Amino acid sequence: MLRLSKKSEYGIIALKHMLNQPEGAIIRAKDVASLYNIPLEAMAKTLQTLARSGIVKSCQGAKGGYVLGRAGDQISLSEIIESIEGPLGIVDCVVGASECDCVQLENCNISDSFQVIQKQFKLFLAGISLADINNEMEMQHVVWH
Amino acid sequence: MLRLSKKSEYGIIALKHMLNQPEGAIIRAKDVASLYNIPLEAMAKTLQTLARSGIVKSCQGAKGGYVLGRAGDQISLSEIIESIEGPLGIVDCVVGASECDCVQLENCNISDSFQVIQKQFKLFLAGISLADINNEMEMQHVVWH
DNA sequence: AATAAACCCGACCTTTTTAGTCGGGTTTAA
DNA sequence: TTAAACCCGACTAAAAAGGTCGGGTTTATT
């Protein structure tokens, strides 16, 4: 059902939080977790995932933590979600690289249309940046014509 | 993960199939199921669900089956999906009527933005009709600016 | 050098959701 | 009367999501 996973939610919460801290401040998983009632381990794993794809940078060791890897307007919602959940596809057979073994395919009447829908949906998400999310007032430009 | 359920896929396949039959032809669940390799019971239940919300009309008894309830351009993708999967929400706390007991809410920093995103996403799906899906060439008007 | 604080990560368990199946209805054309 | 179809709740099985655990590694501090 078209719903974001908890990990994506946690990731977006953390990223938005980081964007609102002073430039260059190092944020610990622990703090985000306790501030937003997120289970520590889950928050930690999500930030590790985001670090792997470069959306945040990790600083190891004591006094370590995370910093945003880029400016808020250079981080898109589609990137965040794909980092955490893997390549996104409204339906399986439309996910880029992966093979689809769906038994309908031989005679499927909807896969072509869904290629188009999928592509537009991704553009939709790609058009929303962390900076947009951070500033609800500015979200007005996120509009479907 | 932002993916449609199988039942939604089955529903859309069936609806598109029906749209391509001669006007007023009665289509049986059995035929759609065998044509597209869909488990009969699953297909049947999905059509029953669509009938309940008026997207198709059911004809009971021998020689029974289903007919589209409306013209293809009067059936939107969001309607189909919501009929089958219930009210859709990218995140829980954004689903219209239902209550959200998420423990982040007291201090959530993203719910406002997601209200906007959710609304636009729904407009996106509402803007795609069964007739559009049926005619991939026409899908070009489904474009994000 | 030792310590503690933090990130790192695979493995696991539990719960929820999805997918599919079954049995027993009801309706209606022939 | 029969058979073909819709109808529907209940069930099971499989998959995904959510969360937890244990044992690492890295690094600032003392």
Could you explain the architecture of this structure?
- 2 copies of one chain form a homodimer.
- Chain A is mainly α and 145 residues long.
- Chain A has 2 domains: 6-68, Orthogonal Bundle (Arc Repressor Mutant, subunit A); 88-141, no CATH class.
- Helices cover 44% and strands 6% of the residues of chain A.
- The first copy, chain A, has 6 helices and 2 strands.
- The first copy, chain A, has helices at 6-19, 29-35, 40-52, 77-85, 111-126, 130-134, and strands spanning 56-59, 65-68.
- Chain A has a two-stranded antiparallel ribbon.
- In chain A, strand 1 (56-59) and strand 2 (65-68) form a beta hairpin.
- Chain A is elongated.
- The two termini of chain A are 25 Å apart.
- At the A-B interface, helix 1, helix 4, helix 5 and helix 6 of A face helix 1, helix 4, helix 5 and helix 6 of B.
What layout of secondary structure does this protein have?
2 copies of one chain form a homodimer.
Chain A: H1 6-19, H2 29-35, H3 40-52, E1 56-59, E2 65-68, H4 77-85, H5 111-126, H6 130-134
Antiparallel strand pairs in A: 1-2
Helix pairs in contact in A: 1-3, 1-4, 2-3
Chain A binds a DNA duplex (30 and 30 nucleotides) through α3.
